[in-house]
Design brief:
Layout (H helix, E strand, L loop, with lengths): L1 E7 L13 E2 L3 E5 L6 H15 L23 H4 L9 E8 L5 E11 L2 E11 L2 E7 L5 E6 L7 E8 L12 H7 L3 H16 L1 E4 L10 E2 L15 H14 L4 H4 L3 H11 L5 E6 L5 E8 L2 E4 L5 H15 L5 E5 L7 H18 L2 E5 L3 H12 L8 E8 L5 E5 L19 H16 L9
Parallel strand pairs: 3-16, 3-17, 10-15, 15-16
Antiparallel strand pairs: 1-2, 1-4, 4-5, 5-6, 6-7, 7-8, 8-9, 11-13, 12-13, 13-14, 17-18
């Protein structure tokens, strides 16, 4: 689980999120108006994931552009805040693995002739830090803890180009050999950090449109895709396995199709979901049942197909995964939007899945407040942030202070629009019209 995220000079953000960074929890929501900077925050772990997973070991930072990439943020000049030639770009995070071991990652970059280069890399765990620092002409100086236990740092005096970390993470074979007995330690640390970031699952704001039928090759997907395009294939794989086995997975837990059906019912959008094969072909229909009515998913409300990937993803990923989701409430009725808060709370508690979510939904937020008041979820297990622009147009991040009753102590102005102002203006106009002839009021 990610517990802290640090950002320096990325897009609209300057250095305000670098120290101490953004504190994260099992459920973290980012709220606020459009184009305030919420999406940029969520892009950081995705940039690191596609960099760490890149097939190109020599790449310092994968800014995107390929079909397999999660995000595409453009060029070096477009991502560095302000004057890219002088500002230093930085990303960092702290995370806990499944064994509760804490690790910290930090990388800074600068530009040379329009290209990003790794300036400094720091990997740390249990008070022991390994560093690679860029020197002149692209050589890197290494720093590492002493071989004996403790935090004393040893600097290796001769920098070399062959010490450039791979993908801004892994120390090279030459660097590991130079470090001697501590070389294996930094290899294990880099592997642990990569695994925690590789376990991130992403669902973007634009979902795949439903199809009349789905062609399935018989293979379970490794992920659902950033548009949720493989969600139905994951359901088909689970349903196919259930038909072949008499026992359920996860110690008697429901199968994936059953879980998703239950949540569709709890959200109030459907009673059941069925997968039906078309004859002996490899094509399948996704059938939605509501009361006595049966319909293809193409013939029901659009909201079902848009929320389906979120429901599947929450139960498809392995425990300990971090889900980054943008606008999971899109095209949903207010009641169903509120139900998404219950989904996240239950999955976070039962499956140890973390949620980092950008949302515009007041109903999702309000339901989370209610669940805190009902003691179904602790206020310390969530972090709520409001992102807005100041008078000069600079983004600002405000952590909402939530008490054990779900109340926000520092409610921002126009948090969800200007509902009170709208009510006042409506009432004032009603009073004015009530006094006019022909408006049903007195003369």
């Amino acid at each position: 689980m990610l517990t802290n995220l640090r950002i320096k000079n990325f897009k609209a953000w300057g250095e305000q999120l670098w120290d101490p960074g953004i504190e994260l929890a099992p459920i973290t929501l980012f709220l606020g108006p459009n184009s305030a900077g919420k999406t940029s925050i969520l892009q950081v772990p995705l940039l690191l994931k596609q960099t760490f997973d890149s097939p190109d070991r020599t790449l310092d930072l994968n800014l995107g552009g390929q079909s397999a990439d999660l995000v595409d943020v453009g060029t070096a000049e477009s991502v560095i805040h302000g004057d890219g030639a002088s500002n230093e770009l930085g990303f960092g995070f702290t995370a806990l693995d499944n064994e509760g071991v804490q690790s910290t990652y930090s990388a800074t970059y600068h530009t040379i002739t329009g290209k990003l280069f790794l300036g400094r890399l720091d990997l740390e765990s249990s008070g022991r830090r390994f560093s690679a620092i860029r020197q002149s002409k692209g050589a890197y100086l290494l720093e590492a803890p002493e071989e004996v236990a403790g935090s004393a740092t040893k600097t290796f005096p001769t920098p070399k180009k062959t010490y450039l970390p791979e993908r801004s993470l892994a120390f090279t074979a030459d660097a590991v050999a130079l470090l001697g007995p501590t070389g294996a330690e930094v290899q294990d640390l880099a592997l642990r950090i990569r695994q925690m970031i590789s376990d991130i699952a992403y669902l973007g704001p634009l979902r795949e449109h439903p199809e009349r039928s789905y062609l399935w090759s018989g293979v379970e997907p490794g992920d659902l895709g950033k548009r949720g395009e493989k969600a139905v294939h994951a359901l088909l794989a689970s349903d196919n396995t259930r038909k072949k086995q008499s026992a359920t997975r996860e110690g008697g837990a429901q199968w994936l199709v059953d879980r998703v059906s239950d949540w569709l019912k709890r959200l109030g959008v459907a009673d059941q979901l069925l997968l039906e094969r078309q004859g002996r072909s490899r094509h399948y229909e996704l059938i939605i049942i509501r009361g006595s009515q049966r319909a293809n998913i193409m013939d029901v409300g659009f909201g079902i197909s848009q929320v389906l990937p979120m429901l599947v993803l929450a139960h498809f990923v392995k425990p300990g995964t971090t889900i980054v989701a943008e606008q999971p409430e899109i095209h949903l009725h207010p009641r169903a939007q509120g139900g998404l808060a219950e989904l996240m709370v239950e999955v976070a508690r039962e499956r140890k899945v973390q949620f980092l979510v950008e949302t515009h939904s007041e109903h999702l937020f309000r339901r989370l407040q209610t669940m805190i008041a009902e003691e179904r979820f602790a206020s310390e297990d969530c972090r709520l942030y409001f992102v807005d622009r100041d008078d000069q147009g600079a983004p600002q991040l405000t952590r909402l202070e939530v008490d054990p009753y779900g109340r926000v102590r520092n409610w921002p102005k126009h948090f969800f629009g200007d509902a009170i102002g709208e009510t006042e203006r409506q009432t004032r106009k009603m009073i004015e019209r009530a006094g006019q002839p022909g408006q049903g009021g007195g003369r």
